[in-house]
Specification:
The protein has helices spanning about 80-100, 105-110, 115-130, 135-150, 160-175, 190-205, 235-255, 275-295, 300-305, 340-355, 385-395, 410-420, 425-435, 440-445, 450-460, 500-505, and strands spanning about 5, 10, 20, 25-30, 35-45, 50-55, 60-65, 70-75, 310, 320, 335, 520-525, 530-535. The strands form four sheets. The protein has a five-stranded antiparallel β-sheet with strand order 2-6-5-4-3, with no helix packed on it. It has a three-stranded antiparallel β-sheet with strand order 1-7-8, with helices on one face. It is of the alpha+beta class. Helix 7 packs antiparallel against helix 8 (about 275-295), helix 7 crosses helix 11 (about 385-395) and helix 12 (about 410-420) packs across helix 14 (about 440-445). The longest helix has 24 residues, at about 275-295. Strand 3 and strand 4 form a beta hairpin. The protein is extended.
Length: about 550
């Protein structure tokens, strides 16, 4: 029992619809949103309301499945002949299931191959939003997947192919996006973003039984460390101090500069008291925002999400509460604060509340919790231009001689570097930065400066004799091992066991005494008296000469 039909459903009557009778039946005529004239039959519901009877545009197939169920399924075809062909295909698939050639799951997956790629991307993005994923990530992935799919000509899920995707990304790596900008090639980081997005889409499709497996499993990734288009550097404490002071004073200084007339460019403009108050508060807000990033390691978006109600500055210890939907890892967190900075931030918070309330005697009456949902920092989303302007005002170059650059996120790098430089345990630094692994904390976010590396090199023992400024050889350093081979007097022999030869003892000659920095430090070595002498050894260096014979360390 297989058949084709178009479904009929009812919907509300448009307000501008015109009712008329033809052949004893009522019809409605109206103009749809696209400007087309539409006509449909009119029916009356049980409660006396007129509704339109609409036939579906596509044909539906009704047939019996392998397990005996009668189902109705859309063929997706507007033409009856094409719909009949699709129905025949449905029946063949059910026969294969009965014969055991295919499973019902494989049949469902095969049928989803006709599903629109763009519609599937929309459904995937909706699932991301339902799982409380970052809205910014969802928007970026939606645009990325649809643009790449259109560029590769993918219309249905059957078109998805890993090799095709890899060829497309390889082409983007050597073809500038903008012909006028030869450097606008896809870097390794953006390449991996595309791979991650498509892999996530493929995994979701496999879970929904739209595909049998993830079609993008094994897509090649590129080395981001070897192809970094932008390398950040950490800022020193002095630079951060200059940045904060520049942010605090820049709004007023710029407003005082005359922009026209004979005094153009001179900082002599007169400002009203209200304007001065507004500009100074703007500078204070920016300064406290940068300082908060530098002393907490918060990301810009995370710091912007902190509200007055999430500021627990009177607690012990003082801290900020970060909501899970605002955190990068989607987990709530407690951000501890320095006590001195907490007092400074508390003064700023009092000023923020007073400005939200308004002037005394105004129409707004403050009460507990009235402004808890207001952001702690009233700053715009795009702070990079403000950061660059504050850098210039502070006299700090955005890019150094090595090509390393500064941006808002460098304050987080500076926070991590300061933790490592001050010998904070790695697991503590990892928790403060909310990293998944300590490798991320040490390998990406902490930057060793030249002083750190020189101090580390100074801890190594000297190799060979030291010399003073005049070039004269200095006395041997007894605290560090002398790794140079120890010379022996001609005629002296060593046995394989490390004892002096019998000839020397027979002559009774006095052997040369070898001064060694390892004396008394834990190495069994031959002495000038012809026996093994135990010396304490704690430097960790192996003997630099075979003249010591057999030896072993007490460590």
């Amino acid at each position: 029992m297989a058949s084709l039909k178009k479904k009929t459903y009812s919907r509300g009557l448009p307000e501008e619809a015109e009712i008329f009778t033809r052949g004893g039946q009522r019809f409605a005529r109206w103009t749809d949103a696209n400007g087309r004239k539409r006509t449909a039959r009119v029916t009356e519901s049980a409660d006396g309301v007129l509704r339109l009877l609409i036939k579906s545009d596509v044909w539906y197939a009704k047939y019996r499945t392998a397990d005996g169920r009668v189902v109705e399924q859309s063929t997706g075809c507007r033409d009856r002949g094409a719909a009949q062909t699709q129905l025949t295909q449905f029946l063949k698939e059910e026969e294969r299931v009965k014969a055991g050639v295919m499973t019902a799951g494989e049949v469902r997956t095969a049928r989803h191959g006709h599903r629109s790629f763009e519609d599937t991307v929309d459904a995937f993005i909706e699932s991301m939003r339902a799982r409380k994923c970052s809205s910014r990530c969802a928007d970026e992935w939606s645009s990325l997947l649809k643009a790449d799919g259109a560029a590769m000509g993918w219309r249905t899920l059957r078109d998805m192919d890993r090799a095709h995707l890899e060829r497309y990304l390889s082409m983007r790596a050597v073809t500038p996006r903008d012909p006028r900008k030869p450097d606008s090639l896809m870097g390794a980081r953006m390449h991996n973003v595309h791979v991650t997005a498509f892999s996530a889409l493929g995994t979701w499709c496999a879970r929904q039984n739209y595909t049998k497996t993830n079609p993008f499993t094994g897509t090649e990734r590129r080395d981001e460390q070897g192809d970094r288009r932008r390398t950040r550097r950490a800022m020193s404490a002095e630079e951060i101090g200059k940045l904060i002071e520049a942010a605090r004073t820049r709004p007023e200084r710029e407003a005082r500069i005359v922009t026209r007339g004979e005094h153009k460019g001179k900082p002599i403009a007169e400002l009203s008291d209200s304007t001065l108050d507004r500009l100074r508060w703007l500078g204070e807000t920016r300064a406290m925002f940068w300082k908060t990033l530098a002393l907490t390691g918060l990301r810009v978006a995370e710091a912007r999400s902190i509200t007055l109600g999430q500021s627990r500055l009177d607690a012990d210890p003082p801290h900020l509460l970060l909501a899970g939907q605002s955190s990068k890892n989607r987990k709530p967190a407690v951000v501890p604060l320095q006590r001195d900075f907490a007092r400074e931030l508390s003064a700023y918070l009092s000023g923020r509340r007073s400005r939200l309330v308004g002037a005394p005697g105004g129409s707004v009456t403050p009460f507990s919790g009235a402004f808890d949902n207001k952001p702690l920092f009233d700053v715009p989303a795009g702070m990079i231009r403000t950061f660059d302007a504050d850098l210039a005002a502070a006299g700090i170059p955005k890019t150094d001689g090595a090509g390393r650059t500064l941006d808002c996120h460098c304050l987080r790098h500076s926070f991590a570097t300061a933790l490592v430089q001050n010998k904070v345990p790695v697991h503590v630094a990892q928790r403060l930065l909310r990293h998944a692994t300590p490798q991320m904390t040490l390998g990406v976010y902490s930057h060793a400066n030249a002083d750190d590396m020189v101090n580390a090199l100074d801890m190594l023992p000297p190799l060979g004799p030291e010399r003073d400024a005049s070039g004269s050889k200095k006395v041997a350093n007894l605290d560090a091992p002398d790794l140079a081979p120890t010379p022996f007097i001609s005629g002296q022999n060593m046995s394989s066991s490390g004892d002096w030869g019998d000839e020397t003892r027979a002559r009774g000659e006095e052997s040369a005494v070898c001064v060694s920095a390892n004396a008394g430090k834990g190495i069994h070595a031959p002495s000038s008296c012809g026996f093994k002498k135990k010396m304490e050894r704690d430097t960790g260096f192996e003997p630099a000469t075979s003249s010591l014979g057999s030896w072993h360390s007490t460590n």
